[in-house]
């Protein structure tokens, strides 16, 4: 674009933001989508570390068995709803316009954030208010997450796309880390401040998006796949709900995997997803374009992304439990201040990601995404293995170094992975491809809570009963009562550690034994030292199991990243994009981008035919 063209673009942009053909427009897109993506993912994790303050604020006892469901839905509801809807909104973006759906997402998100900050009730009613509006907020987040990457891909030429997607992926993943830090800080001031954080960002971001973003991507005419949408949302929702409730005790079992309701949800969810696949293979305008899985880079890139999302979400959960429930109290930090200090001590994880993410995105533009995605996954594997060797009462410098390298691995992996996936699909399918990729992220994060909670419970079940029983008896608690409390399901103990709460007072109060013991024993039972010490040895078994599984998942991610193929990061570009021209009308290849021989583009395939199925095969 020459100097005179730039001046004409400047004049056209006057009074309505930068025009779509202005060379600076892509940077406006990058900045706005980065704000939107980070805002959505910050809200996915900010509640994770703020739950103790929120429960105190609405006067809800988290250790009451009747309130466990509230706790679980506050943990997983946001991720569950966004995971169910992100593909739907990606498909709607392809049909109705990606910017239109993205802008609407900003509005929905901002409105829900305001409602969350105005909780009018206490107790269970207040919890239901929060859960309901968090679900609405998740609808807005799904609109943002499903279309931001596609809008960005439409706006940047292929030679800069890895850098742009790298910045965007930093916003996504670092948002989940920053949510922990922000939640730990603001919850010390006021629990409502947890929800105030995103109100101004959401309102200003919505205004900015409506006044500055333009539709430049290809639209794919079609109809909404109602049967596919319903079967997918219900199937995925049932599976995630079944996994969520599977961590609760049932009957005499420490977990609920034999609960008929849990089994019915899991089986029913799988059946609905099988029906969804059958529907998508037959319908003319599918929501979930299964033909994209014929693309090698798309298939293996998404597999790698799913494994990374599950392992990363599980690691965050375990580290919070480890710090809030065991390490910080054992080193003299009060339970009330544990969320704040946990967020501080997790800073190396965020720093590692922020350091590696931009560099890997920039390098992947020049050398391809595969080597950096593989290297990042391998670094994460080594960091997980290192964490298995760290004692529960660890020296902090050693712990900080390991989580720093885990962050480096995540940062090095994320942006090349996104670049490989998005560069492999036709332009008209970028919205649905972005939605499918983000479904991996949100569903993987939601699954990680149930999966890793279950792994920790399995690890605790061996030694925890004997440890609790011996510790309580040592403080004068009658052996019968000590054995009874020690044999209780370990889920309650795990939730207490996660929330940074000493449950011994709550467990012993109904028996009246606290009024019969010497004050020195009562002080020990209610203090900050005894509970973490009783939990630490059994917790080591759970930690080892969790980190081994995390290492295995990242090994799969490394292998899948290697299998994407060495040409996958650039092969989908048109000749115009390779020359660095501003994108106008993309026609990317469909098929295996790593295959030998000349690539077939949509433009080579001829004009659209009257057969919708044939058009889909041509990427039209």
TrEMBL record:
Membrane topology term: Multi-pass membrane protein
Keyword tags: Membrane, Transmembrane, Transmembrane helix, Transport
Biased composition (Polar residues): 566-575
InterPro entries: MFS (IPR011701), MFS_dom (IPR020846), MFS_trans_sf (IPR036259)
Localization per record: Membrane
UniProt-listed Gene3D superfamilies: MFS general substrate transporter like domains (1.20.1250.20)
Disordered: region residues: 566-620
Bias-annotated ranges (Basic and acidic residues): 578-590
Coiled-coil residues: none
TM stretches of this protein: 27-50, 70-89, 101-121, 127-152, 164-187, 193-210, 230-248, 260-279, 300-328, 340-360, 372-392, 398-420, 441-462, 542-563
GO CC terms of this entry: membrane
Molecular function terms from GO: transmembrane transporter activity
Keyword Phosphoprotein attached: no
Keyword Ligase: no
All residue ranges annotated as the Major facilitator superfamily (MFS) profile domain in the record: 29-504
Any Pfam family: MFS_1
Name of the protein: Unannotated protein
Organism: freshwater metagenome
């Amino acid at each position: 674009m020459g100097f005179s063209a730039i001046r004409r673009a400047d004049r056209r942009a006057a009074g309505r933001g930068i025009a779509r053909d202005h060379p600076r427009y892509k940077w406006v897109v990058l900045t706005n989508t980065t704000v939107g993506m980070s805002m959505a993912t910050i809200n996915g994790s900010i509640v994770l570390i703020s739950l103790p303050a929120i429960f105190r604020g609405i006067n809800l006892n988290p250790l009451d068995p009747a309130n466990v469901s509230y706790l679980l839905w506050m943990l997983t509801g946001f991720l569950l709803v966004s995971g169910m809807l992100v593909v739907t909104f990606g498909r709607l973006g392809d049909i109705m316009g990606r910017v239109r759906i993205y802008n609407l997402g900003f509005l929905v998100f901002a409105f829900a954030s305001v409602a969350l900050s105005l909780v009018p009730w206490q107790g269970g009613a207040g919890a239901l208010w929060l859960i309901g509006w968090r679900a609405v907020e998740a609808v807005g987040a799904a609109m943002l997450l499903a279309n931001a990457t596609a809008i960005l891909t439409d706006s940047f030429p292929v030679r800069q796309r890895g850098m742009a997607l790298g910045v965007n992926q930093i916003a996504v993943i670092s948002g989940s880390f920053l949510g922990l830090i922000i939640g730990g800080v603001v919850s010390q001031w006021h629990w409502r401040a947890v929800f105030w954080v995103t109100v101004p960002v959401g309102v200003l971001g919505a205004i900015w998006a409506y006044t500055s973003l333009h539709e430049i991507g290809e639209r794919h005419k079609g109809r909404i796949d109602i049967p596919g949408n319903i079967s997918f949302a219900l199937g995925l929702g049932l599976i995630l709900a079944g996994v969520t409730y599977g961590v609760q005790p049932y009957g005499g079992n420490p977990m609920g995997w034999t609960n008929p309701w849990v089994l019915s949800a899991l089986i029913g969810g799988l059946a609905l997803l099988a029906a969804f696949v059958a529907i998508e293979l037959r319908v003319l305008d599918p929501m979930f374009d299964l033909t994209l899985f014929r693309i090698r880079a798309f298939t293996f890139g998404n597999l790698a992304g799913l494994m990374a999302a599950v392992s990363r979400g599980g690691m965050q959960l375990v580290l919070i439990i480890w710090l809030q429930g065991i390490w910080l109290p054992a080193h003299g930090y009060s339970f009330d201040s544990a969320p704040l200090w946990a967020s501080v001590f997790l800073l190396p994880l965020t720093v590692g990601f922020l350091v590696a993410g931009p560099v890997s995105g920039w390098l992947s533009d020049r050398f391809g995404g595969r080597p950096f995605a593989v290297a990042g996954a391998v670094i994460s594997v080594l960091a997980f293995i290192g964490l298995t060797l760290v004692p529960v009462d660890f020296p902090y410098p050693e712990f900080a170094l390991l989580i720093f390298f885990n962050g480096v691995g995540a940062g090095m992996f994320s942006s090349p992975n996104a670049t490989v996936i998005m560069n492999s699909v036709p332009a008209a399918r970028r919205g649905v491809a972005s939605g499918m990729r983000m479904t991996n992220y949100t569903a993987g994060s939601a699954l990680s809570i149930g999966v890793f909670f279950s792994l920790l419970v399995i690890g605790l079940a061996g030694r925890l009963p004997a440890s609790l029983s011996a510790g309580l008896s040592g403080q004068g608690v009658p052996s019968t009562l000590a054995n009874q409390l020690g044999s209780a399901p370990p889920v309650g103990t795990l939730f207490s550690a996660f929330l940074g709460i000493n449950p011994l007072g709550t467990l012993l109060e109904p028996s009246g034994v606290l009024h019969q013991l010497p004050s020195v024993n009562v002080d020990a039972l209610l203090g900050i030292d005894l509970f973490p010490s009783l939990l630490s040895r059994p917790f080591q078994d759970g930690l080892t199991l969790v980190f081994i599984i995390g290492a295995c998942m990242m090994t799969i991610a490394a292998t899948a990243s290697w299998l994407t193929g060495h040409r996958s990061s650039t092969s989908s570009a048109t000749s115009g994009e390779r020359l660095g021209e501003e994108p106008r009308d993309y026609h990317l290849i469909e098929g295996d981008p790593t295959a030998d021989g000349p690539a077939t583009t949509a433009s080579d395939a001829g004009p659209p035919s009257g057969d919708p199925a044939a058009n889909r095969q041509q990427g039209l």
